[in-house]
User: Fold Bifunctional deaminase-reductase domain protein from Nocardiopsis dassonvillei.
Amino acid sequence: MNDAAPGAASPGQTLDASALERLYAYPDRPWLRANMVASLDGAAAGNDGRTEALNTPADLVVFTLLRDLADVVLVGAGTAREAGYRRTGPRTGDRAARAVAEGRADRPEIAVVSGSGRVPPLLAEPAGEGGGVLLVTCGAAGNEALDRARRTLGEDRVLVCGRERVDLRAAVGALVRRGLPRILCEGGPRLLADVAAAGLLDEMCLTVVPLMAGGVQQRVAVGTAADAPLVPGVLIESEGTLLQRWLRPPS
Assistant:
């Protein structure tokens, strides 16, 4: 891992895969980054309600890279259900071998946040060759839901963090203790707002696509009020798509 500052690149430089990876490298400490996509007018989905309507080739490249670099993908249960999340496949290129050499898994895990303790159906399917799934929940889910989740995922793969609601700070600590310090939050918007409000957001990766959406789609973060100042780190343009990396200011 590198320090918190992004790798160097020059204005107008064409980036190959190695240069792009350097620009998005994790620092050498626990780090929570979020990755979201938005239209020019701030919509978090197209007018069909799907984020896929906003995806571009450049966005897909960075989406894949950020997953490859992460130890665990943090996602809300509602988003996981709506987007059809499945267990992760192996990292691409030589990143799988590099991860294993560093003592990490050859594919990231998924940590799904659910206050009700329900595992999204596609993530409840048998592991096969896919990555692991963790459930992040709270005591209010109740013993019946917790026992069902443990039978589905395994006794040690249900993290009870908080009593009445999920304590995200405790959840992040639990993930780090499991050897998963590189955390990638993929939302949805309510989880992202909660993460930012809890002071846990180290970095925001935002793809802005060249599209005005209009309509009534929600923003990339909604719900809990958050005042999380960030400073610009990286700005990349590819065929009108803007790829941005915003960092927590130095303390």
In short: The helical segments are 17-23, 57-69, 77-83, 95-101, 143-153, 168-177, 189-197.
